[in-house]
Amino acid sequence: MADRHTQSRRGYLKAVGVASAIGLTGLSGCVDRLTGSGGSGPINFGSILPITGDLSDFGSGMQKGVNLAVEDMNDAGGPLGRTVEHSGKDSETDAQKAKNKYETLVSENEIVGFVGAASSGVSVPLAKTIASDQVMQVSPASTSPVLKNLGFGDPDDTKYFARTAPNDSQQGIIMGMAMNEFVNAKSAAFLHVNNAYGEGLAKKAQENFNGETLQLVPYSSKTSDYTSTLDKLFKGNPDAVGFVGYPESGRSILQTWKGGGYGGNWVLSEGLNSTEFFGKIPDIVNGMYVSSPDPESTKGADKFKKAFGGEPKVFSPHSYDAAFLMGLAIHKAGEASGTAIAQNIQSISRPDGETVTVGEFDKAKKALDEDKAINYAGASSPVDLNKNLEPLNRFAILQVENNATVKSVKTVPRSFFEGKV
């Protein structure tokens, strides 16, 4: 929870701006300008995505998804008839650098919400700040179970953190299932990047593995030699390895594994599900299993693929949905603020309203203006946000083939996870 007695950066900026501007333009106009809640000026959105760093394989596609959403909203006249202005920042897949850029977006760009971050290790520290700043964060890729309980404001318990990617409690079930049913492992070890995403998912996968867990081994993505890490991981000769990591460091780890002759069958996390990653080490990853969301196809998925100009990169549809949902929430609320987004984003994603999808911002605005409920079914999935502002997804167990593509070997429906997450 946020401390209600702590003044936020946004609150400080409001106070200073109002005090200096009363004699010039009047109180009302100044507050409207600073908060973005009234008037006809632009609505300021941000994004904090991994254009560089360990998740750079995904960053450009995610940024393109946000850009397409902003373009679609503005082509339809924007939320409340106002233009969305988007300021994009590179997280560099680094928590401290992302935090610095977030503070710039709040203090200089006066954002009401942002899309990001990608990794949970970057999103978690941001999510601890947003409620006091009254800024809405919608992550397209952060999946740590920890985030389910972050981003709450005080005293009304409004949740300022949402995500369009599923909670890793789902993926942990799938990783365990792959080890149990496809590898038929009796023993396993888990290797995870040393952050909230890695630790959280590895522990969930361990809970769902039926055999003996020999060890959980963290690693730093900044390490250049992973030999000692792998020596520790393979102590006791595990039948299977659950690997929660990112492509850049993952490539080095798997090359070291192959050269060292360690053995074992690998089950990879969704964060490693990259065609570019597989294509760089096709002989090494051939035959490995991958856990991945496999959401039900929507009309929006096809429309997004066409707008994207080819097969979308992982998490780029989720990024589109994150921005689009924020715009719809603002229009429903009749106010452009982080609190307005937080309090309305779930209601415009539920299946009891008129269905709207990718590129249909004008249709959605018209329905909302007529006081009708809407259900945004997105580019990434049906995006039915629950009370924790996160979706349940259908999942799949994939297997990497010798041409660096993947095939699905098992699909697990959304209904399977109800009551388990």
From TrEMBL:
<dbReference type="InterPro" id="IPR028082">
    <property type="entry name" value="Peripla_BP_I"/>
</dbReference>
<keyword id="KW-0732">Signal</keyword>
<dbReference type="InterPro" id="IPR051010">
    <property type="entry name" value="BCAA_transport"/>
</dbReference>
<dbReference type="InterPro" id="IPR028081">
    <property type="entry name" value="Leu-bd"/>
</dbReference>
<protein>
    <submittedName>
        <fullName>ABC transporter substrate-binding protein</fullName>
    </submittedName>
</protein>
<feature type="domain" description="Leucine-binding protein">
    <location>
        <begin position="42"/>
        <end position="349"/>
    </location>
</feature>
<dbReference type="Pfam" id="PF13458">
    <property type="entry name" value="Peripla_BP_6"/>
</dbReference>
